Every structure is written in structure tokens, then in C-alpha cells.
Amino acid sequence: MALLEALVEFDRTGPGLADRLTGALRDAIVSGRLVAGNRLPSSRDLAIDLRLSRGVVVEAYERLVAEGRLLSRRGSGTTVAPGQPERASGRQDSGQAEPGRRESGREGPDRWESGRAQPVNRIRPLRPGVPDLGMFPRVAWRRAYERALRQARAVDLDYGDPAGAPRLRAELAGYLGRVRAARVHPGDLFATTGAGQAFGLVAGALRAAGVTAVGMEEPGSASIREHLVAHGVGLVPVPVDAGGLDVTALERTGVRAVLVTPAHQFPTGVVLAPDRRTALFGWARRVDGLIVEDDYDAEFRYDRDPVGCLQGVAPELVAHIGSASKALAPALRLGWLAVPPRWRAAVRSGKLAADVCGPVLEQLAFAELLASGGYDQHLRRLRRMHRIRRDAVVTAVRRYLPSARISGIAAGLHLVVELPDGTDDVTLARSAAQAGLGPLPLSRLRVDPGGPPGLVLGYATHPPDVLTQAVATLADLAG
Hints:
Radius of gyration: 23 Å
Order of helices and strands: HHEHHEEHHEHEHEEHEHEEEHHHEEHEEH
Structural class: alpha/beta
Strand content: 5-15%
CATH architecture of the domain at 138-375: 3-Layer(aba) Sandwich
CATH topology of the domain at 138-375: Aspartate Aminotransferase, domain 2
């Protein structure tokens, strides 16, 4: 530890200690004084050795993990990551990524190009709709799974309740009430295999009630649009502006159900304004309709506390959908659906027909992760890292694409870059795909033609240096 203290000399007086420690550690890595595989002291030990608070060291470690310079795994400690990039010119020791050298909501697989899911061999930089899968809390999940397995009764291994494991529904009800201001009882909830199954269940219940068309935000998620159409529901585009869904336009469509993303509209990122929320509830009451709330990415807000969900205001009008895909991993297929009482029988019937019951052991493990506080701890860590990565993309866009307009940066795992009129965003996105990048063209997220061209850029999957180079490459492709 004394050796590390010598390697990270810096001024330890005054404010900004975390910035200076981050910079000193980064310098030691970039210069080769710390090399790939070197194990760093625990945050507690380094704090004692450097005579700092532990919080300063934890923040510095987390920033460098977010940058891809350190690896941190419970049980294995913190080590220098392999394949370190060189320091980008002009970077300041602030923990925020600055532009590097120009060497180079839910959307899941890259569906926009051919209309069908494409095989994904690796996660492409700037691809929206996916988390950093390397951040999956393997140790915490394994412990939660082992606890669930130890505590599971023999009867728990039988075919379970179609609505899901009672323990998970109880933990979810508490979590959604605490974090999303929802008003849900465990009996209101269905554990689903991801949000995808939840959309299918809602579509089936609507069809059974004679509802054949659903309003959907324009622009909106192409993958959800295709999913609903595949389940036999017609879609009617409803425009979105700076206040969110245009409820007056919704009234004119004559539909009795609408899908909305009120906390963080996909893809624009706007929040449904308070007057629009009130108007939307009024519409639902007048037409005896259903509001389907896709609460994706709601936990990831960076400018203020997350906006409360619609369901918590009018649970009798709202079907609430969420999942752990963006916070943990899509492969877990853990989602949930809360529906008003009059829709429960149809949804339960659909769930039973779909898969009899869900994966009970995974549901019990998720319940353990929620109950232990491990899920909240993981989300706090992700929020800090996402903010750093988002800042890197914003900085790079402003440097390399100065004529672009950036929006949707306050929350979520993506932002929107509007490009100059006349830009062919589909061709640009295709060229980016050929260069190994994964942005989505904004025009493909609209049903009706029109609106500015642009790209949807994800920032959750890669460290800042990679994201900065990806934006630089994109700028080269855009000319």
C-alpha cells in the first residue's frame, strides 16, 4: 500500500479530493506505473493509507470502473483492466470523459434494418436499449439464488401460480410503491418473462374485450410496435411534442387504449407534463379506456428524483409494465405487469395459456435481491456510471457534430441527436453498423413520414473512451 501511495501523489487539501485522486490513479495507469492485472487495495485500506475518507476512494474507484480502466468484482477485489487506451489529449482530471482521438427503451435487437431480430454476437457501441452486461452483479445474484434455493420448499418446485411467486409479487409491490410511487397490491401483479410478455398479455386482454386498435406515441419504439401488431392489435400513431403525448390528438383517434412512456418518452426523452397527465386520465374515464404505461428506464434519472408513475395516481385506469432487463440483464427475462381489477381475469387466463407459470426459482432469487437491498445498491452504482458515460457522449457530440441538436439527456440509457435537414439517417445508421456501431435511425421510429432526421445513441454499454471514439467515427461517416 505504501508503494501505491507513492504512485498516486496528489494534493490532499481542499475540495475536489475525489477528482484529484481519480486523476492521479488514471495517470498511474496511463503512464504504465500501474499495469493490467495489478490489484489495488480495498477502498477501506487505501483510504486509511492515504488519510482520506473512504467515500472519496469509493467514488474514484467507481469513476475509473465506469471509464473501463479498473475492474471491480466482489470477492476478487479491484484490479487494473487489460488493454488500457492511452490518455486522450486535453482530458482533465475530473472523472468526466473528454473527447479522445478520432481514430476511429426499450429497443432490443437491431430490428429496424430488416424487420426481424438479428443475431447479436457482441454489443455495438452507441446501441440503445441494452445495459452494460459486464456490470451484471454476478456475486450478489448468485448469493440471492443460493438463498432462494436453500429456502425453497418442495411445493415451490411444483407448477406455480400463473401470476408468479407470491414472495416476488409482495417484494415488487413494496419496491414499486417505494421507488415508483405506485399503488399496487401483490394481487394486482403478474410476474412476466420480461416486458415483452406483458405487452402480449395486455394485447390479448384488449382483444378479448373487443378493443382492436391502440394509440401509440409517434415517434415510438419500433420493436414494441412490431410486437403488438404480431399479437393482433392495430396501432394508431399519436404525436408527441415537448409536453409528451398530445392528448387532444388522442381524443380525435377514437381509440379506447393507448400505450405511453410517461417517465421518459422513447425515443425523445420528454416527461409527460402534469396537465397532459390530468388530461390523459380524463380521456380514459370518458371513453372507459385503458392507459398502458411502459415504465422503462424509470429508475435512471440524473437531474432530479424520478417522476412518479401514472399507476400511482389512477390505478383503476392504468396497466403498469416494467422489467429488470435494463438494470440487470435481458437474459433473466424478469418483468412485471400490474392491471386494474377488471382486466385481471383475462390477463391471468392469457398467462396460464402462455407458459402455465414462470421460472419460479429465478423469481424467488429476484425477490431475495430486492429484499436484501442488493437491487437498490446495484441501481445506485449504475446511475453514477451512466451519468459519466452520458456526459462523455454529450461532450463528444458537441465537439464532433456541432450542428446536431441533443435531447433526452436527463434520464434513461440513450439520447437523441437531431441532424441537419436533408440527412439520410437510415443510410447513416447503416454505414455506422458496417463500422461496428449501433445507433438507431430516428425516422424508422415513426409510422408517418416527416420530422427531423436523427439518431438514437445508447451510452450504457461501453466506457467513455470507446464512446468518444464511436461518436468521432460517426461524425466521419456523416461527413
